[in-house]
Specification:
alpha/beta
């Protein structure tokens, strides 16, 4: 127990025989359950887990590879079945320092958050040891994830060191959440639709000789597609179907004005090339809706930022 909370640590692992034993053996004493999900590994990952002498450890072997998200969701489901109040994710590659686990749990125990996640970008020394292409990729994906998820107060979305309270986990449509590397991004979108308070926790990453299975050039386009779909899903569900709010009014009106102004502007430019000159009224008909649309969209974004930061 940690501050009257039953805690389960979920460890997704795929071909992590070298490091998964270290992860399991260093789980803090206050953790009640350690759930290791072997995602159809081809090496001795399961054997390395079973070699750890800890009664809290439970091993789940997946016959077919589900991806990191699928493995985590399997672990979350088991954590709920075991009655855990909080489910924490710690990857099987030993990048997540268990010393900082209380920092993730405190906001949940204090009742100010239902979901917490680590943020490696918390100070000038945060980039030490991180490959440059990962720094750039995380910054870009962080911005687009902010816009898609509505959690403008969060950063470093690909950081998988997270904790979620069972009250949020039970409400999540777990069967609809993406199961590959876009899992963390989609998870944030779904949590925001449910209006679950989320907090960033400054936690440094530990980089060793582990080998990442993520290939940015292959994964990034898939994540961007998921963010694009997730953004529209969130806007419709949160601001239209749940409660038709000022965000929806300003956002969709702004889109309509922007589209109308752009269409009139393009039509005017095409038909006034050469001798004909556009009248002042025609110019205003294009410019006024365009600027109004931008104003409405900025206002909608401002309200969305306020909503997501609560």
């Amino acid at each position: 127990m940690y501050r009257d909370l039953s805690v389960a640590v979920v460890v997704p692992a795929h071909n992590e025989e070298r490091l998964v034993g270290k992860v399991v053996s260093t789980v803090p004493d206050f953790v009640d359950h350690t759930i290791v999900v072997d995602d159809a590994s081809a090496d001795g990952t399961s054997e390395a887990v079973l070699a750890v002498n800890d009664d809290r450890v439970e091993l789940i072997r997946l016959v077919e590879n589900q991806g990191v998200g699928g493995a985590i969701l399997t672990g979350h489901q088991r954590a709920l079945e075991l009655g855990a109040d909080v489910a924490v994710v710690m990857a099987g590659d030993a990048q997540m320092d268990p010393e900082f686990l209380p920092s993730l749990l405190d906001p949940i125990a204090d009742g100010v958050a239902g979901y917490t996640k680590a943020n490696r970008f918390y100070g000038p020394g945060s980039f030490a040891g991180m490959p440059r292409h990962r720094i750039f990729g995380n910054i870009v994906l962080s911005f687009f994830t902010k816009a898609a998820s509505g959690y403008w107060n969060l950063f470093d979305p690909q950081n998988g060191y997270t904790a979620v309270h069972r009250s949020a986990l039970e409400r999540l449509p777990r069967e609809r959440i993406a199961k590959r590397y876009e899992f963390e991004n989609d998870m944030l979108i779904q949590l925001n639709i449910l209006r679950v308070p989320a907090r960033d926790v400054p936690i440094p990453a530990s980089y060793g000789d582990e080998i990442s299975g993520m290939r940015l050039t292959r994964v990034a386009p898939r994540i961007m597609r998921q963010l694009w779909r997730g953004f529209w899903h969130r806007m419709v569900w949160k601001y239209v179907l749940q409660s038709f709010s000022a965000v929806a009014l300003m956002f969709f009106t702004g889109l309509a004005c922007l589209a109308f102004g752009t269409a009139v502007g393009v039509f005017t430019v095409v038909n006034t090339l050469g001798t004909p000159e556009a009248s002042a009224g025609t110019v205003i008909l294009a410019v006024a809706p365009f600027l109004t649309g931008i104003h409405f969209l900025v206002s909608a974004m401002f309200l969305d930022i306020q909503e997501g930061s609560r």
